[in-house]
Amino acid sequence: MTNHALRVAALRVLSDAINNEARNVRADAETEFARLRTDAGVKSLTVTLPDGTEIGTVAIKTGAREVAWDDAAVRAFAAEVSPTEVVETVNPSVLDDPTVRQFLREHKPDAFTTSVRPAFLKSLKPDDDGKVVNPATGELVKVAEVTTAAPTGKFAYTPTKDAAARVVAAWQAGELGEIGGPLAHAVAPAPVEEWPEPKAPEAKPAPDDLPTFTPATEGPFGAGYSDGLLGDLLADNTTGGPF
C-alpha cells in the first residue's frame, strides 16, 4: 500500500503544479473575457468537451461598482433624516498630547490601561519553565506557563528542488497508482499467468550408429558346421537333447 508520506508529497506537488497552471490560465482568460464583455456584450459562455458534451457555463461579470461618498453631504443628510445615526468620536492622535493625557489622569483615571507592545511580547522566548532572562541581571524571571500538547498530526512537507518535475513525470507515466483520486491514471490489472497445456513427451529418435548384424557364411564352429546344422541341433527333440 502506498504510504501516507508519498501521498501527501505527491498530491502537494501536483496541487501546486495544477494551481500554478490554473492561475496562469485564469489571468489569460480574464483578459479575453473582459474584451468579450466590453466589445461584444457577451455575458456567458457554454463550456463543452471536445466531443461536444456540455459541462457548464462561464459567467462574465460586469465591472465592480464603486461608490465614493461625500462625507460632508452624508453627515448633513443623516443629521436631517436620522440624527441618532450621527456619532461623535475622538481623534486618537490627541492622546499623544501630554497636556491631554495629564488632564485625563486627573479627571478620568479609569480611562487608562497598560499593556505591553505586541512586538516586545513576541521578542520574549520563555523556556520550558516559562522563564525569560533579565538582560540586566541575568536572573531568570517567570513570566508564563508553558505546556506541550500531544501531537495532533500536523506536519510540514518541504519538497526537493526537482520534486515537481519528478512527481509530474511519474504521474504522467502512471507510476503513482491511485494517488490523485479522480485525476489518477487508470491502473491496468496485473496480467494473469496461465500454465501451458501439458504435452506428451516426444519419442527420442533412434541413434544412427547402431551396429548392423550380418549373419556369417560359416557357422560358429568352422566351415564344417553350417547355420542350418546349428539350427537342426537346437531343434532336436530326442530324449536327452542333442548333447
Give a verbal description of the structure.
Helix 1 crosses helix 5 (163-172). This protein is flat. Helix content is 34%, strand content 7%. The model has no long low-confidence stretch (mean pLDDT 82). The protein has a two-stranded antiparallel sheet. Among the domains are: 1-62, no CATH class; 92-146, no CATH class. It has helices at 4-40, 71-81, 98-107, 118-123, 163-172, 227-235; strands at 44-48, 54-59, 131-133, 140-142. The protein has 243 residues and is mainly alpha-helical. Strand 3 (131-133) and strand 4 (140-142) form a beta hairpin. The chain has six helices and four strands; from the N terminus they run H-E-E-H-H-H-E-E-H-H.
Largest sheet: 2 strands, antiparallel
Widest β-sheet, arrangement of strands: 1-2
Give the CA-CA distance, first to last residue. Answer: 90 Å
Residue stretches low in confidence (pLDDT < 50, at least 5 long) are none
Number of helices: 6
Q: What is the number of E strands?
A: 4
Helix content: 25-40%
Strand content: 5-15%
Q: What is the average per-residue confidence, as pLDDT, rounded to a whole number?
A: 82
Oligomeric state: single chain
User: Over all CA atoms, what is the radius of gyration?
Assistant: 51 Å
Note the overall shape: flat
Coarse structural class: mainly alpha
Instruction: Give me the strand/helix succession.
Output: HEEHHHEEHH
